[in-house]
Amino acid sequence: MFMNRKFIAKVVLLVFMISFLFPVFSLASEDVYVWSSDVVTSSVSANTTDNSNSLNLECSGAVLIEQNSGKVLYDHNMHEKLRPASVTKVMTILLIMEALDNGRITLDTKIPCSQNATSMGGSQIWLDPRETLSVNEMLKAICVVSANDCTVAMAEYLAGSEEAFVIQMNDKAKALGMNDTTFKNCHGIDEDGHVTSAYDISLMSRELLVNHPTITNYTTIWMDSLRDGKSSLVNTNKLIRNYKGATGLKTGSTSVALYNLSASATRDGLSLIAVVLKAPNTKVRFAEATKLLDYGFNTYSYSEFGKKDDVVKSLTVNKGTIKNVNAILGDSTGALVKKGEEKNLVQNVDLQDTVQAPVTRGQVLGEVTYSLDGEVVGRTSIIAETDIPKVTLWSMVGHLFQTWYQLIR
User: 191 and 98, same structural domain?
Assistant: First the structure.
């Protein structure tokens, strides 16, 4: 009897240990998808996303997002890891634009060409190691005709080598929450392990368009030339010519990756990004991007509530050297809504009538929120437009002296 009890106790202990440890083993599985904290959160409810492939897309992966919020509107295998081909260059262009913004280069900076850059093959403008082109010319070549030689020349100039630049690409991808992505090169020529997803491409495309909107000066070029007209450029993205409101962005294709596209467009204040990966041919690539964009523009609208610095109200300032201060919107604000629901939007302003001095410029005074069917779809802070010091003995004396001086003039 003693042995039986001892045996039963061991069995119970073993069962307890297995049940305790099993969840740990499950969580360690490589199949668990870990979301980055930097991924953009939705501004409208998730049930508005279409992931049923109701558009009958033939491509292997696709996504449609609203550019302002990053909200996913249509999902077709958007996290499937696929070869991006030259759509890779969206990240390269993003890093070039960041270098321009922080002053490391200017559009007039002359970029030399290495022997390595001339040996890339694929799409190119046949750079000569003896020539230099400006950053402006390099961007034209990269954005319009997807020039691999120019892409590598820029990468080498900015980071010292293509390998060092690719490290920067992967670091940026991680910062943007591109969890499906590993870059092996800066141009997109097929290489084992060089993969991303439709969703990740939408993230870097959004980053480029939102924070570097002047890139559309290049991505919307249909035809141009370099070298005093000797090198003609015709955009590989046919939507620039054929789709109303198209703003870019980048094509890509190889015999292994097949046909890819990140397509962006803006109509009536609504900006969309459609990504198509591994379409069977170029005709399908453009047709399916068009389907996605049409779906977005036909289904949704962007309601703008107010622009940055719009005056909400004039507040009384207690004990201030000035009696009133304008309460203004801290940022432009709006929301993505399904068409027909705009009339159901409700605005709520949380703001007092008075404020105590001293007041500093940019000081948060309140908040305005916008709701649809009880769900908050937009919000922004209300801030002070100017500094207003508090009244002191010396300021009162100064004010009285100024008033007296005006009276006796």
Answer: yes
E strands in 268-396: 270-279, 300-306, 311-318, 324-329, 333-338, 345-351, 354-356, 364-372, 375-384
Whether residue 218 sits in one domain with residue 128: yes
Write down the pTM of the prediction.
0.78
Indicate the number of domains in the chain. Answer: 2
Active site residue 86: yes
Give the active site residue among 146, 202, 253, 271. 146
Per residue in 53-86, pLDDT tens? 889 999 999 999 999 989 999 999 999 999 999 9
Q: Among 71, 89, 238, 291, which one carries the catalytic annotation?
A: 89
* Same-domain pairing of 236 and 100: yes
CA distances from 294 to 222, 243, 258, 264 (A): 21, 10, 23, 12
pLDDT digits (tens, 9 = 90+) for 309-367: 999 999 999 999 899 999 999 998 888 899 999 888 998 999 999 999 999 999 999 99
The token pair at 117 is 């850059």
Range of the domain at 369: 307-393
What CATH code is carried by the domain that includes residue 278? 3.40.710.10
**Catalytic annotation present for 146:** yes
89 in active site = yes
Query: What stretches in the chain show pLDDT beneath 70?
Result: 1-49, 393-401, 403, 409
Task: Establish if 118 belongs to a structural domain.
Answer: yes
282 and 314, same domain (yes or no): no
Choose the catalytic residue: 86, 202, 253, 271.
86
